[in-house]
């Protein structure tokens, strides 16, 4: 039986400059190379899940420029349903200037552009498509009201939801996302959402439990190269990192979430789905680019067997 995932979220054009180091204020510095690619946390998660074999429907907004056409073509090329990708006249598409250092670490600026126009009405317009989904993914590169509305819609319609609260938003109203089935913050986002310090795993677990006490179903704390923590009402488990030499870490968190969504929606228990997602994300950092670095199902399966 085929499973289906929806993403109510962002898309961006990633403008990636590979630098030897970041310039100081006022300094002009030559950088060795530049690449453009499709990104945006929502689109990245959608593409990861689609490449692994999920049916994916994307609810997003593009602007009134050449990036919009390229973005729609990219969704189509990845087999993603674009019936709910709509254009905003007179507005730019989302763009993300990104700087990647030799260590693979990245710094990202985002311009939301058309993404800021994704509204609760767009979610209602996609209701029929969303009703057939196993899981709806969200991030914070669109208006918070749209995220709040989608969480409430999922609860009212019995569809599971996952919020990746990135980028961190200090003004996020926790009471309006508390009905989410899965919350997947990094440590910084968890500290902001819980109002508690998160400097080690003990604190991360306590902060995650404070959110579960407010109604959140399951918290998945992503810890970068240190793996992840699965915090459920009944237990806490650690997802060990998969060790690789990073080339470009951009979009690794999105690869992790998209892959988790795929494996969990296809019937894997949460912990097993997270372990596979960690392997999928680790593989992605060994290649340059965001979506460009995401493996297809056959290549990932071969990697797992090796
Ligand atoms: O998570 C990585 C993504 O963040 C990039 O693709 C960029 O577009 C920003 O949204």
How would you summarize the topology of this molecule?
Elements: E1 4-8, E2 12-18, E3 33-39, H1 41-52, E4 55-62, H2 66-77, E5 81-87, E6 95-100, E7 106-108, H3 120-125, H4 127-131, E8 135-138, H5 144-157, E9 160-163, E10 182-183, H6 187-194, H7 201-213, E11 218-222, E12 228-231, E13 236-239, H8 252-265, H9 270-284, H10 297-305
Parallel strand pairs: 1-4, 1-8, 2-6, 4-5, 8-9, 9-10, 10-11
Antiparallel strand pairs: 2-3, 6-7, 11-12, 12-13
Helix pairs in contact: 1-8, 6-7, 8-9
Describe this structure in words.
The protein has 306 residues and is α/β, with parallel strands linked by helices. 35% of the residues lie in helices and 22% in strands. The chain has a single domain (4-23, 32-301), classed as UDP-N-acetylmuramoyl-L-alanine:D-glutamate ligase. The protein has 10 helices and 13 strands. It has a 9-stranded mixed β-sheet, with helices on both faces. Strand 12 and strand 13 form a beta hairpin. The longest helix is centred in the last third of the chain and has 15 residues, at 270-284. It is globular and about 50 Å long. The site of alpha-D-ribofuranose has 15 residues, from strand 2, helix 1 and helix 8.
């Amino acid at each position: 039986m085929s499973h289906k995932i929806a993403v109510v979220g962002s898309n961006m054009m990633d403008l990636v400059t590979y630098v030897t180091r970041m310039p100081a204020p006022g300094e002009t510095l030559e950088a060795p190379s530049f690449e453009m690619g499709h990104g945006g946390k929502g689109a990245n998660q959608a593409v990861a899940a689609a490449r692994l074999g999920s049916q994916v429907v994307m609810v997003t907004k593009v602007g009134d420029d050449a990036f919009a056409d390229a973005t729609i073509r990219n969704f189509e090329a990845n087999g993603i349903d674009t019936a709910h990708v709509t254009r905003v006249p007179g507005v730019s598409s989302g763009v993300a200037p990104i700087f990647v250092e030799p260590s693979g670490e990245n710094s990202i600026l985002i311009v939301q552009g058309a993404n800021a126009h994704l509204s609760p009405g767009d979610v209602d317009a996609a209701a029929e498509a969303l009703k057939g989904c196993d899981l709806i993914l969200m991030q914070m590169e669109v208006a918070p009201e749209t995220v709040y509305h989608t969480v409430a819609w999922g609860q009212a319609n019995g569809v599971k939801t996952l919020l990746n609260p990135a980028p961190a938003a200090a003004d996020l109203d926790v009471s309006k996302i508390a009905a989410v089935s899965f919350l997947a913050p990094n440590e910084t986002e968890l500290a902001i959402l819980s109002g508690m310090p998160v400097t080690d795993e003990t604190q991360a677990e306590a902060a995650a439990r404070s959110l579960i006490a407010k109604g959140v179903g399951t918290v998945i704390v992503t810890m970068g190269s240190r793996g992840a923590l699965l915090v459920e009402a009944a237990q806490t488990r650690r997802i060990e990192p998969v060790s690789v030499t990073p080339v470009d870490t951009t979009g690794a968190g999105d690869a992790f979430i998209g892959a988790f969504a795929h494996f969990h929606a296809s019937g894997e228990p949460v912990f097993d789905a997270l372990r596979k997602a960690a392997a999928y994300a680790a593989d992605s950092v060994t290649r340059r680019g965001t979506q460009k670095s995401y493996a297809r199902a056959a290549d990932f399966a071969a990697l797992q067997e090796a």
